[in-house]
Batch of 2 targets.
Target 1
Amino acid sequence: MKAFLTILLTLFITLCFSQETISTKMKISRKEFVETIEQYIQKEIKQRKIVGLSVAIVDEGGVLISDGFGYANKENKTKASSETLFPIASITKTFTGIAVMQLTEKGLIDLDKPIGDYIEELSLPGGEEKIITTRMLLTHHSGIQGDILYNWYLPEVSNNSLVYEQIVDLVNKEGCIFPPGKMYSYSNSGYSLLGVLIHRVSGIPYVDYVHSNILTPLDMNSAIMFAGEKTSNQIALGYDGKSSSAMPMKLGVPAGGMALSANDAAKYIQAVINIYHGNELLLKTATLHQMMTSQNDSIPIDKGFSIGLTWFLQNPIKAYTKYTSHRGELPPYHSMLVILPELKIGVCITTNTNNSSIPDEMAHDIVGKIYEFQSGETFDIKTHNEKGTFNLSKMKAYEGYYSNVFFGPMKVTARKHKLLVKSIAIPMPLHLNPNADSTFSMSVKLFGFIPLPIKMLQAMKAEFRRIENEKYLVFNIMNNLINPNIKIEPNNIPDDFFDYKGKYRVINMDNSDRIVKDVNIVKNKDFYILKYTFLGNYKFNLALQPIDKEKAIIAGIGQFMGEKIYWKTINNRIKMHWSGLIFDKE
């Protein structure tokens, strides 16, 4: 059960404020408030064993805090400062989005024109370049494989600012994992293509464009766009346990290559807020409002999830104000940006300690404190579930397997007064308890009848949906969609697949362990399952759907699913090809 809780922790804290954080009205001066925030940060550093943090906090009165805390280099006792650079990973996408919208304002990009009209060398296996639009790329609805693992982290730092343009050939080979426009599925590859788009339509390479048109106008002079860029500023080392490492070189520069200081992060937050309120320095105010408006309300599978043009709009305080955010993960670096533009509140936290929950939880705690400091108000985010009745014949309609990235094929079974979810990754079955609104509350019961008081599960719901003859099991936290899990059927598995069982190692990329390791194919009763560890933290269990005796796809739909795998036997050695990587079976 520990693994189950770890998987859901980040999602839970992103969407929920702790009641302790938001329950105390503060009648103190601005200076005293800043001191309480700094004390909170120092307390978190000590309790969570954080090596270093970069913190930028803005409210309607200006910059509250812009500083580094802890160490940029623990071995050398070099403290983090307001000018220390911390990689912000996928928060880079918000800069890429602004660049795209600048070019849209100039009439150089039509958001709903096929991307193939702009990138002529793009030629996907199914011709999807004639369907995929810039809007789909900005909202992660392109269907393009989310993470092509080959060179996800480059083996070494490169000074080639165009290195990301390799993505065109990689996408041409791997193609789409579902029809464009069908659903949200996070895609770093898609955002890397946006960098190529910016280059093609502006005539200026992506890195130079962002420096000239975003960073320089905002006086963000210390920011770098990728690890190989020259800088006189200290770049914080990353820490995973006791070991340290330098900022990795990410192939997808436009998807996650930037590093910012606290001072520059504060300038960026202020710029976004000012544009929202009429200061059109980088963009027209109407354009930013469009970016912060939901783009996917008409997509049935996305029900319960909201995204703008780049910005995530999943709002834990939606009854009070507009909420926009973006996370970033480049292990061991993790970051979170939250902006409440209407209230002129913004927080950006980046840590060099390999715990993805830290910046999410701290950013939301601090936003809650600022909200309370400004308004003196508290709010109740608790959910109340009215129990429904258990109808065995109705419950049996939900039986079967549903794909999930973390849990593998989840088996739903109806038994008398129980609806259970089992998988190889969950030590004890999840009990789905019917609510009056057709959703299900979730619980775990020791020995099958003693409920365990797991607070996180109390905030979760499950829901079964039928969309265009496809069945889904959807998990929600606070009525916010986590991910849709499509129903899958066991396949007739060719006998040859038995030879594919076992452990694999990457043979065509150095430094591959930072991306994917512990690769293993196992078999349970009904499925072969691809198991691996992604980015050192995430344990994946993916069901395989055979195509023939040498080919399969990862069963399911969405990020990390629908990807192609095939095997070849060369000199009596089995080679597995997947996501640009070549593996040797041990």
Target 2
Amino acid sequence: MKRIIILLILSLFICVLLANDFMQPAQVSEGGYYQGMRFGRRSSFRDQDPPPEYSFIQNGNSENTTYLIDSYYDYMPFSYNGHNLRLQPETSMPYGYAADGMFVTYMCSETLALMSDRRAFYSYLNPDGTLYYSGAINVYTINHEGYTSCAIDPVTGDPFAVWHARVEPDNTFDCLMSYELYHASGSSSNWIEPFILFDNPEMSASLTGHANDAFLWPQVHIGPSPIAGHRRVHAYANNAVPNSAIHHNYNSLYGYADFSADSLLISSHLDWTVQSFSYFDYMHYNDIDRVNKDMIVSEDDGKVVFFGSAGDSLFALYSEDYGETFTKYTQQLKQPMDNPTNNITGAPLWENDDGTAAEMFILPSNDLSHFNGVFTDDHTKVQWMSGVNYNSQENINQGVYWPAYIYPKIFTFNTVTGEFSFYDLDVQDTDPGDDHMAVAFDLDDDGIVDEYDPDGWPIVIMSCPSWFFNSDGGWQEAYFHESNCKMVSNGNWVVCVWHDSAKLQNAYFEEPGYDGWIKEPEICIVISDDGGATWSDIRYINANPNDNIIDPVNHYDGNYAPELEDMIPVDISLGDRLEILSNTPGNYHAKLHFVFNDDNDYGSAAGSTTNSGLLNGGSLRYAAIDLEFQEGGSYSTDMIVTPAIGHLSQNYPNPFNPSTTIDYNMIEPGNVSIEVFNIKGQKVKTLVNEHMTAGDHNVVWDGKNTNNKSVSSGIYFYKMKTGSYISTKKMILMK
């Protein structure tokens, strides 16, 4: 008992010291247990694909999971956004070394000295899933390193890692980068000495005009480059310093650099182009809205997209020129919602401070923000999982919200039309893919409350998208700090994974029949075989041995995974690529790679302000499962970066009348076509269809169709195709 008390006191002391580089909530939480709330119940109003069938894939040692390392640091070891598990290409070029392994980056404390010993680590896994090596990336200095992210050069197979750390005399955090020269030796033990990527605050001051910012939690991606024989590495970081209103609204620094195998061999720090974004800066410094976001980079056509939400709107910053210029798209997502009444007393379910009925809305959440994104539909769509909250207008005006009312969604940004859509992922109504978000007390969409409790309150079905909850930690600790929702795709096959604590929360609130669910979170998996247009029902996986049979009285559904026996599997992070196992009729299977933290005690001691869990660490592990899909489709078998052989620019002027000029570049000679389409996708006119020499070119469209007749005002799209390069842009004819 004495040892447990000491660990609890030490845990509380350390988490207070470390909190300065945790992401912080944007709003004030009004948590609590509200009348009519019901956990662990799902909609049955629609037909849907069944939960995906799965099986664990044993590694080369016939083990279901692969041990990576022990760590006392049990809070978000795999970072907030981006990727920490990346797959190599089969062969490392230009020297032809065998590769096909996996790099994992994470933050790790091998001792209880979390303030000094938290370090950026990596593991290299053999192609059969066995561990080759785990160790520190930075063997030169140790300065409270954390929040890693990694990317793989698809040509050399070299990993790039980023993290933040205290490295300068002023004790500020800077973002660091290192890369490993796998292609030089065919082994994973040659990381270059880390260099400063984002220098705080010196670098940002000239870009944002603020001299005390600290951009942390870096993410890194690699894609094609407009320079022949090169790739382009992209990175961004978020501002940890609150604005003048003491709010954390998170503007960003973004940088890119081109490299080749030769530039890596000389341990180059690369030539970086760095910028901030006026949209994010405006939101942050003027205290407008919190920006919740991540970035994605396509592997073959130069697309770079920042995506997420800010306030009551979804947004995307979209680039088709390798991150050199961005176009902003926003779309409001604020749906009015009825405020039902008690069918006995007539009192409203939600009240304002003065007791009057609250005006209710559904709008994007500032919780459930630890997400990443995927491209689908030939890179014409970006998809990510996040959440929405139910809230009152009075709360919105006061910067207050109810974190308990949170509901997961899949959001989609269409790169061609610039429009956004959503899909009700967990609690669903009759059509989860329509333009109306599910209302959790009217899931049959008939405008009438579905069910009342014995006290007359409308029953509100709840979602619980977090692995953590306890009666002391509350709602925000669960849904902001301990949520994690990640996606991966290959072609039109997509997988989304997150955690759920619905049954666990029922146990904490002593609901009848849930006694066996204390400290037993579940893993949720849904799949799509049509590019994210529709999704399967949820497959739940847990380590609760009581759930090995179906018992409706005790809410056991037979979802126990014996492969996770005696574990507390939390903080899942997915591999960056879904590996296709088979794609023949009746035999559609893909391999999902993931890493997770097997926590030694329920709760995040190193990262909590609620004293949740003992400071006794856990072990980081890798696993893979075989997922069965229902339909086949297009996919890629390996990561490919196709050298760009063309580039399409934005037309000018835009809007235009009566004509506009379209510039394009041929990096090498070849056949090229440029065609104009209307908003229905019908071809209007072919502007170019011939063999062109290398260099800059342009073509003028006079607003006429193939029949030489003037077209009407409206939105049109022009599409360039040369070799494997395809790019589509929007233009507006305004008469």
